[in-house]
């Protein structure tokens, strides 16, 4: 099945009004476990920085939910959000103008080519690198674009079952991925090759997170892939599963895991 068409259909539903889009962001923040991990890291990074005029790069902004969350933390932060999808960038620019977030700009850019030397205090890459074959080139561009002391925060699938691949011969649940997941040592080595020296990496999506992901994402997406009529049943499905997913997300994001299907990586210039 293809994940992008279903994401596009959901986006079209929630893009109809600014209120619906805010609700969409809120639901994504609750349901997506990676958001719990990313928000936790961003809170730690932002401590003591909320009143500083910082520049942030959202490298592969997608729906724009992380830019929305960060832009709400401080009006002094200037955020550039880039993605390769023209329509998504246009929708995001329109939405952020409607809600008056003037500290945000969306632009169409290819991360393999984009570089803005010594410009950003933070770069964020959430579920992006598994879609890009030329990953070291992207890491080099981001390294060059960061100021000295700037940090890159990455969330990406691991090779411990990321992309829902658990054995040789299996194919990814999300077929748009160019790699099923990174080995934790592999991604650190690639970041060193790109110029980063201080790197920290840990697993997310341990056993609690994997259960939550199947309940909150995999099964609903499979149902929607079978028939769009399942969209009518989703509220009732989530009414039952939602409390369990919230608890599992909290457990996963506050625990350390020896293994997991996701990686959270921080690298400093």
TrEMBL record:
Keyword Hydrolase appears in the UniProt entry: no
CDD domains hit by this protein: AdoMet_MTases
Transmembrane segments: 229-251
SUPFAM superfamilies according to UniProt: S-adenosyl-L-methionine-dependent methyltransferases
Stored InterPro entries: Methyltranfer_dom, SAM-dependent_MTases_sf
Listed GO MF terms: methyltransferase activity
Top-level lineage group: Bacteria
Keywords tagged on the record: Membrane, Methyltransferase, Transferase, Transmembrane, Transmembrane helix
Pfam families: Methyltransf_31 (PF13847)
Keyword Cell division annotated: no
Domain Methyltransferase: residue ranges: 54-165
Gene Ontology biological process terms, A to Z: methylation
Coiled-coil portions: none
Name under which the protein is recorded: Class I SAM-dependent methyltransferase
Organism this protein belongs to: Hymenobacter algoricola
